Amino acid sequence: MTGSVLDLGLPEAVPLPGLPARVRIHEVGARDGLQNEALPLPVEVKAEFVARLAAAGLRTVEATSFVHPKWVPQLADAEQLMPLLADLPGRHPGLRLPVLVPNERGLERALAHGVADIAVFASATETFARRNLNRSLEESLEMFAPVVARATAEGVRVRGYLSMCFGDPWEGRVPLPQVVATGRRLLEMGCDELSLGDTIGVATPGQVTALLEALGRAGVAPDRLAVHFHDTYGQALSNTLAALRAGVSVVDASAGGLGGCPYAKSATGNLATEDLVWMLHGLGIETGVDLGALADTSVWLAGHLGRPSPSRTVRALTGG
Ligand code: HMG
Ligand code: MG
Fold first, then answer.
1. Which residue from 117, 179, 258, 265 could staple onto 169, CB 3.0 to 4.6 Å apart?
2. Structural domain boundaries enclosing 76
3. pLDDT score recorded for residue 263
4. Is the pTM of this model over 0.85?
């Protein structure tokens, strides 16, 4: 990238005490981002998107979902996408390509493509469980239990997402004990990692700190946790900093700030990966990501989607 502020060594790295030396970014653009697009993208474009993200240094790239194709038609081509990803040119040996799996049918489909990482996705609230999974909260956990057990037995890593941790568009405030209890259930079920979702982007940093402290008191250490912030109210980066201060070192983000959930009223884009990387590199925190290559990828994808990236950093770096 010529003439970029990156050539001038910006952002200047000035560390703050008490933060992790390295952050693993869990890139969700190809899944959370594309599940919400009105225009379905050709499967070859999706494969190239994943390839470009990996080439930009991202090592965990959530690829797609094996959910019911009628529920999320945007990702109905999971079966066509997976073989294209198996043959990515110059695939890094450490590259992980998790996929979302809601039930045993989804797991069958994913295992047929040799996936090594899956994610189940629960809700901290009753209403979103019903809207997103057509199940009560309890029934949805019952649906996940055999998925997690079988995946674990087959050596597949399992992430557990927990949505609506900080507010729900139907139920309003979500009591902390309810979030902690449901999160613990996912970990006790056998999930390797728990990703705390602010599905509608309403959280503020004090809330994030309070939830992480409450989880700590309940025996859940930050090394089991990831954070997943949508950026509806522009709070995602400050919430991320609060989480880093509490010891979390896995952060979900979406290239270019794509994202949202078709079943969550008022969900908008995820924290943009470029905005996150700008802050982390400015704090002297390693990510392994080439910010210029990542921003170029988001501009390239925006061309396919027919609208500019909402990421401030992408716009600042590329004028796009
Ligand atoms: P259901 O309609 O209750 O399904 O949907 P069912 O179990 O009654 O089965 C009905 C039929 O669907 C059966 O076929 C099944 O085989 C088939 P039939 O016997 O009638 O011919 N079926 C499937 N087919 C293909 N793949 C499958 C599958 N499952 C059942 N996996 C279900 C229940 C969970 C499947 C549905 O509600 C669903 O797919 N939901 C997914 C919704 C979704 O993907 N939401 C977005 C992701 S979550 C998110 O974005 C939040 C997150 O980012 C974190 C945050 O921001 O907070 C992760
Ligand atoms: Mg999400």
1. 265
2. 20-318
3. 81
4. yes
